[in-house]
Design brief:
It is built from two helices and 18 strands. By secondary structure, the protein is mainly beta. It has an 18-stranded antiparallel beta barrel. Strand 17 and strand 18 form a beta hairpin. The chain starts with 12 loop residues before the first helix and ends with a strand.
Length: 419
């Protein structure tokens, strides 16, 4: 029985990036040097991690002991500003070295990145554009953007390299003193290389409109709708189309307390190639309705700040699946004096593979992750700072439970090169 035919390869990052970058840079060429700025930053982190692969109790892995690692980061941000136009262009790299357990062997990598943004303030009309590029390792249990952890991806059996390319545009038009119309569109391209059989190249295209209405000096309402097209270059030629609508608010209760929130529904329709009872390839379609939204509460005192966030979304993961993700986050920071501070950050996340769940795989594709991380920071000088901390990570899936412990020490420096 022949496998389903694979669609033509999705456009590569280089082909998609060239015209977008030329349009971004040529459309915002600066005319003078007096408004330029260049800021550089350097960081060095050392860490010890137990069970770096987050191997569960049920997995047969004899090498989930102690790992050690070193990460060096270097970044530059170039900016230019006029009374109506701002643009920034940044580039950096992260050099990682890990050793110890077997799970850490593939983590010694060189990860470059680049980013840029342009904004124009035309009074009633505001325009903006941005792009991003990154290349990173994808080799062991890490938590992607939806999980809220500080690493690159989720568990796989292959040692792959992931390339991300994103581009977006946005516009806002002030209809009146109380009403502002907004528009946004963007694309995200993810490609894998080097032993990428376990991962799926994918492309996501999004577009949305919004209307913000000022109810009072401290309260605004936001009505928004958006559409998203997700295409994966996998064995089943999976695709998904979603439309969501939300109603949100922004409320400044006092100088210390502010609230934002939104709630709505998302309709998701998925398609994939399957074999019917006669062995023929047919296109199967499923659909579901999911709640989306979130809230953000922030409270600030002279020396202490508190934040509570929640989000519910349907979005592609870094490894190529479309996921329904619920995330709850809590952060607390306290300034001891002018140079010392302590903080506590925690995250709880639940993720479901949307396409697999619609197929009936409702257990293997549900995962729960949690982490808690206290830390202490101190300013060593005007440019240098240090941070020491501990992170406890927890994973719960159909394979069982897993824990990981991490202690780290980092030094960083920020320097204004000019002006």
């Amino acid at each position: 029985m022949a496998p389903p035919p694979r669609r033509a390869p999705l456009p590569g990052p280089a082909q998609a990036a060239i015209p977008l970058l030329l349009a971004l840079l040529l459309g915002a060429a600066p005319a003078g040097a007096q408004d330029w700025s260049l800021i550089g930053s350097f960081s060095q982190t050392g860490e010890l991690i137990s069970n770096i692969g987050i191997n569960t109790d049920d997995e047969d892995d004899e090498d989930d002991g102690l790992s050690y690692g070193s990460t060096t980061g270097l970044n530059f941000n170039l900016g230019y500003e006029t009374p109506r136009t701002q643009w920034t262009l940044g580039s950096g790299t992260r050099l990682r070295f890990f050793g110890g357990s077997e799970d850490a062997e593939g983590l010694s990598t060189f990860n470059p990145n680049a980013r840029g943004a342009v904004s124009f303030d035309g009074g009633r009309l505001n325009l903006g554009s941005d792009f991003s590029f990154s290349r990173a390792s994808q080799t062991f249990t890490e938590f992607d953007e939806e999980g809220g952890f500080e690493s690159d991806g989720i568990v796989i059996d292959a040692e792959a390299r992931r390339t991300n390319l994103g581009f977006g545009v946005n516009a806002g038009y002030e209809l009146s003193a109380r009403n502002t119309l907004g528009f946004s569109a963007g694309t995200r391209i993810v490609r894998f290389s080097e032993n990428d059989d376990e991962l799926d190249d994918n492309t996501t295209i999004t577009a949305g409109v919004s209307l913000a209405r000022v109810i009072s000096p401290r309260t605004s309402l936001i009505f928004a709708t958006s559409a998203q097209r997700f295409m994966a270059d996998d064995f089943e030629n999976s695709e998904a189309f979603s439309v969501n609508g939300t109603v949100g608010f922004q409320r400044t209760v006092s100088q210390q307390l502010s609230l934002t929130g939104r709630a709505g529904l998302a309709y998701v329709e998925t398609e994939e190639d399957v074999f019917d009872e006669f062995g023929q390839i047919v296109r199967e379609t499923d659909s579901t309705v999911s709640g989306v939204g979130g809230f953000n509460l922030s409270y600030s005192m002279p020396r202490t700040s508190f934040g509570l966030t929640f989000s519910q979304s349907v979005a592609p993961a870094s490894t190529g699946e479309l996921r329904n993700t619920s995330t709850l986050g809590l952060s607390v920071s306290h300034r001891i004096d002018s140079i010392q501070s302590v903080s506590l950050n925690s995250t709880l996340s639940r993720r479901v593979d949307v396409i697999e769940a619609l197929d009936g795989s409702t257990t293997d594709d549900r995962e729960v992750f949690a982490q808690i991380s206290p830390s202490y920071s101190i300013s060593l000088s005007q440019d240098w700072s240090a941070r020491v901390g501990y992170t406890l990570r927890f994973a719960d899936s159909d394979d069982g439970d897993a824990f990981s412990n991490r202690v780290f020490l980092s030094f960083s420096r920020s320097l204004a090169i000019f002006p």
